[in-house]
Amino acid sequence: QVQLVESGGGLVQAGGSLRLSCAASGRTLSTYTTGWFRQAPGKEREFVAIIRWSGITYYGDSVKGRFTISSDNAKNTVYLQMSSLKPEETAVYYCHYRAYWGQGTQLTVSS
Question: With contact defined as beta carbons under 8 Å apart, do 67 and 79 qualify?
Answer without folding.
Answer: no
